[in-house]
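Let's practice the habit of predicting before peeking. Look at the sequence and jot down your guess about where helices and strands might fall. Then scroll down.
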Amino acid sequence: MVSRIFTAAGLSAKASRSVAESLVEADCRGIPSHGAMLVPMYVDRLRSGSVSTHEEAEVVADHGAVAALDGHHALGQLTGDQAMRLAVAKARRFGVGAVTVRHAFHFGGAFRYVLAAAEQGCVGIAAANTRPLMPAPGGAAPVVGNNPLAIGAPVAGRTPVVLDMALSEAALGKIRMAAADGRTVPATWSTDAEGVPTTDPVSALAGMLLPAGGPKGYGLAVMVDVLTGVLSGGAFGAGVSGLYADTTAPNDCAHFFLAIEPAAFGPDEEFAERMGAFAEAIAASPVAPGTERVCLPGELEASRHAETLREGVHLEPAVRDALVGTARALGIDTEPALEGGVR
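Done guessing? Here is the structure:
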């Protein structure tokens, strides 16, 4: 159904599949804040014109190992896939490849891009900026986003090691889901509009997110904005608009992608084997009482993905209803999908 929705909204079948795969895979990996719940907002923006139906970014600068793209407000999954492919191609030739995208839009889960690099044998890094959602330590106003950062690396005999995190204690999407479901949130996630920590997700949506690790998360978020918005020549800080604040105004975020070719530093197979030995040492390390095993970054998400492929994706009722409503508004017959489960 998700792919059909984007086709009905004006994208080609190929582009629709790419965007749908990104969102559904996030649900499969246990990251619903970057999954199908985003479809209605994406479609609202496509219909209002703040997100374009362009399917490829414009290359505005290309100098050896680096390139700069202009996304022209296309869906971020499409320009993100393009940018990481270009970064990997450059890494093959130069050892490293760095690509920025300005005038971009939300690109879903950052894991998608570093996994793509790792599957090609490269180390991958992906980052994006968002509208300001977090205060500086001691500050009373949001000055920096919960900017996502992902790093992935290939591992011999295992799925890639993937770190994918927003730099707030929790993603804004998780708070939106809690508000839709009538659930509370931990007080460590956010503040109300006065800067007081809150467990009420509605108050949190009117307030600020708190950075992961306090000043450390805040500092990382600042530097991600440097690599994305400032470096790309795009928007940064308050120049980035909220995804939900005004769907007629372009989000105008920016992205950064880096691919590293391990063979440039030594035999390619040596890197994968060394990563395998490192991973095995961590996996075999002693566990604390009450703990079954330790996990590598991204291992739990990969396990959830494999389990979901067997058992199917579970959508919260509010997400399911919004998805069906969006499909029907676009003239899509949802009955077949509902009979077989929403896909």
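How did you do? Residues 339-343 have pLDDT under 50 and may be disordered.
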